[in-house]
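User: Let's play a game. I give you a shape written as C-alpha cells, and you guess the letters that built it. Ready? Here's round one.
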C-alpha cells in the first residue's frame, strides 16, 4: 500500500511540475560538468592542498623576482669592477709601454753590434769584446737580429705580461676562475 501511495504522489508531482522535468537533464549536465571541472575537492582536504600550492607558486614567483633583481645588481657590480680593472690595465699599459720602449732603446744602444762586415760576410772573430759581446768569439754565442725584430719581441713580451696581469686581476676580483691543468 505505501508503494501505491508513493507512485500516486510521483504521478501527481509529474502532472503538476511537467515543465521542471525538462530541466532535469540540464541540471544533471551542470552537476556533471562541476564535478568534472573541480572534482570532489571537499574530500581529503583537496581544497586546502590547492590553496597551499597556489601560495607556494606565489612565493616562488616572489623569490624569483627577488633573485633576478639581485642577479641584475651583481651583474652591474661586476660590470663596473671589470671596467675599473680594464681602465687600470689601460693606464698601466701606457706607463709600461713608455718604460719598455726606453729600456729597449737603452739595451739596444748598449749592446749593439757594430758593422764589421766585409764583402764576404761578418767576421765573428773581429767583433769587439764589449758590454754586448761575449768574452769568447765563438760563433754560436753571438746572435745579431734586426732592431725592428728586437723591438717586436720586446713588445710581444710586454703584451703577454700585461695579459697575464689582467687575468690575475680578474681572478683576484672574483670575475674569473682558475681550473686545474688537465692531466694527460
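Assistant: Ready! My guess for every position:
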Amino acid at each position: 500500500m505505501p508503494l501505491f501511495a508513493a507512485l500516486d504522489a510521483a504521478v501527481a508531482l509529474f502532472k503538476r511540475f511537467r515543465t521542471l522535468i525538462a530541466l532535469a537533464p540540464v541540471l544533471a549536465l551542470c552537476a556533471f560538468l562541476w564535478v568534472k571541472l573541480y572534482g570532489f575537492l571537499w574530500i581529503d582536504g583537496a581544497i586546502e592542498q590547492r590553496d597551499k600550492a597556489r601560495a607556494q607558486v606565489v612565493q616562488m614567483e616572489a623569490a624569483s623576482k627577488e633573485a633576478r633583481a639581485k642577479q641584475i645588481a651583481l651583474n652591474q657590480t661586476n660590470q663596473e669592477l671589470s671596467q675599473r680593472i680594464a681602465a687600470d690595465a689601460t693606464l698601466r699599459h701606457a706607463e709600461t709601454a713608455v718604460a719598455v720602449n726606453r729600456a729597449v732603446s737603452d739595451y739596444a744602444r748598449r749592446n749593439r753590434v757594430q758593422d764589421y762586415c766585409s764583402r764576404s760576410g761578418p767576421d765573428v772573430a773581429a767583433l769587439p769584446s764589449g758590454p754586448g759581446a761575449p768574452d769568447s768569439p765563438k760563433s754560436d754565442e753571438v746572435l745579431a737580429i734586426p732592431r725592428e725584430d728586437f723591438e717586436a719581441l720586446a713588445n710581444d713580451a710586454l703584451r703577454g705580461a700585461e695579459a697575464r696581469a689582467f687575468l690575475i686581476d680578474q681572478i683576484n676580483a672574483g670575475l674569473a676562475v682558475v681550473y686545474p691543468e688537465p692531466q694527460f
